[in-house]
Amino acid sequence: MTSVEHIRDAARADQYWALVPQGPGFWSLCRFDDTTGFVGPPMHVSGAIGVHPGVAVAWAQRITGLPGWVPMMSRPGVLVEEAYSLVLEIAHQPRTGRRIVLRVEADPQRPSGASVVVRERWDASGLYSEALSVVDRAEFADEAQMLQQTADGFGLDPALWTAVLPGVEWAHGPL
């Protein structure tokens, strides 16, 4: 199977490989379900191969044939196949069973001390995706501009933002 065929099949099924640490030196390959945000049970478990992610990636590549893996910031220590990040990058629009969510999150590395982070939130689980966009909060004059520009950037109707936690989180569409 070519890389393009694999990405197409993974995106259609919303199923991606995840590489999960399982204790000192052990790793597992699980399926990450992009319709719910859940990582499933182990489908393959390594022997004691070490804690370094590079060794784990080499082990996973032998099983899956996939050379590219990226960290999941929302699940520290877990790596997901690179196709997932490509699909997220291409998607940038609402998909069935999830909604676009804008959150203002503390970020000490930003001049303002906060970031505006756009993610998907799965309706079935309430879990959040990896960030689709991260911008310093200081880039926006006010809340209205922040919501308008985010809606414009994602091709959304700006009138459909609903405050989940006023001043902190907004979801696109009805709750």
Give your account of this protein's structure.
The protein has 175 residues and is of the alpha+beta class. It has 2 domains: 3-89, no CATH class; 92-172. It is built from 4 helices and 10 strands; from the N terminus they run αβββαββαβββαββ. The chain has helices at residues 3-13, 53-64, 82-91, 143-154; strands spanning 15-21, 27-33, 38-45, 69-71, 79-81, 98-106, 114-122, 133-136, 161-165, 169-172. The strands form 2 sheets. The chain has a 5-stranded antiparallel sheet with strand order 3-2-1-5-4. A 5-stranded antiparallel sheet has the order 8-7-6-10-9, with helices on one face. α1 crosses α3 (82-91). It is elongated. The termini are far apart. The mean pLDDT is 86.
Concise overview:
The chain contains 4 helices and 10 strands; from the N terminus they run αβββαββαβββαββ. With 175 residues, it is of the alpha+beta class.
Domains, number: 2
How would you classify the helix and strand content by structural class?
Answer: alpha+beta
Estimate the helix proportion, in percent: 25-40%
The largest pleated sheet is described as:
5 strands, antiparallel
Which regions are unreliable across 5 or more consecutive residues at pLDDT < 50? Answer: none
Total count of strands: 10
How many angstroms separate the termini?
40 Å
So how many helices? 4
Strand order of the largest sheet: 3-2-1-5-4
Write down the overall mean pLDDT.
Answer: 86
Q: What Rg do the Cα atoms give?
A: 18 Å
Note the run of SSEs as H and E.
HEEEHEEHEEEHEE
Strand content: 25-35%
Using the alpha-carbon principal axes, give the shape. Answer: elongated
